[in-house]
Design goal:
The structure is a single chain. The chain is α+β, with helices and mostly antiparallel strands. It has helices at residues 9-19, 38-56, 61-68, 92-112, 128-133; strands at 2-3, 31-37, 76-82, 116-120, 141-151. The protein has a single domain, classed as NADH Oxidase, CATH 3.40.109. It contains five helices and five strands; from the N terminus they run βαβααβαβαβ. Strands 1, 2, 3, 4 and 5 form a five-stranded antiparallel β-sheet that branches. It is globular and about 55 Å long. It is an enzyme of class 1 (oxidoreductase). This is Putative NAD(P)H nitroreductase. FMN binds at residues 21, 25, 119-121.
C-alpha cells in the first residue's frame, strides 16, 4: 500500500527531470506530465464514477468505491501522456514507446529517490471522455499513471518470466 508522505514539490520536480531523460528519436519530446494531487482527487473521482455509470450502468457499492479511488492510491500521481503526432521520419508507435520509456524511468526515479511507485493505467484512460477528465487533448494518450508515496510494508516479489525462454539467437530471415 502506498501512503504518505510523498515527495515535496522540489523532490517531485527532480524526479520528473530524471524521468524525462529518456530515449527520444528526433528529440521530439513526444510526452508530457500531468500531476494529480490530493486536492484534485475528489473532483476526478466524481467524474470517473459518473463515467463508469454511463459506460457500465448502475454500480455496486464496491465498484463505486473502486472507481472513486483510482487517483487516491497515493499522495500524488503522475500521468505520463503521449503526445505522439504524425512525423515524416519517426512513426507514432515509436513516439509512444518513448513515452512508455519515460514512465518506466519515472518508476525508477521514484524508487531511487526513496519513495514507492506503482504504475497503473485504468480503463478510463482509453475512453475519450476519461482522457478529457484526466486533462488530455483528443489526440493524446495516457502511457501510464504512476502513483507516488511511501510504502507501509515490504513488497512481495511477484513471479517473473523465465528469461532464458525469452532469448534467441538470430537464425536468419523469418520465413513463417
Amino acid at each position: 500500500m502506498i501512503t504518505g508522505p510523498g515527495p515535496d514539490p522540489a523532490q517531485l520536480r527532480d524526479i520528473l527531470a530524471m524521468a524525462a531523460r529518456s530515449p527520444d528519436h528526433g528529440r521530439l519530446v513526444p510526452w508530457r506530465f500531468v500531476v494529480y494531487r490530493a486536492e484534485n482527487a475528489g473532483e476526478i473521482a466524481d467524474k470517473v464514477e459518473k463515467l463508469a455509470e454511463e459506460v457500465n450502468g448502475p454500480l455496486a457499492d464496491d465498484q463505486r468505491e473502486r472507481e472513486r479511488n483510482r487517483l487516491r492510491r497515493a499522495p500524488v500521481a503522475v500521468g505520463v501522456v503521449s503526445t505522439a503526432a504524425p512525423h515524416e521520419k519517426i512513426p507514432e508507435w515509436e513516439q509512444f514507446l518513448s513515452a512508455g520509456a519515460v514512465a518506466m524511468n519515472l518508476v525508477h526515479a521514484v524508487n531511487a529517490s526513496g519513495f514507492a511507485a506503482n504504475w497503473v493505467t485504468g480503463w478510463f484512460c482509453d475512453h475519450p471522455r476519461g482522457r478529457a477528465i484526466l486533462g488530455l487533448a483528443p489526440h493524446e494518450r495516457m502511457a501510464g499513471i504512476v502513483h507516488i508515496g511511501s510504502c507501509d510494508r515490504e513488497i512481495a516479489e511477484r513471479p517473473r518470466p523465465d528469461v532464458d525462454a525469452l532469448i534467441s539467437d538470430y537464425s536468419g530471415e523469418y520465413r513463417g
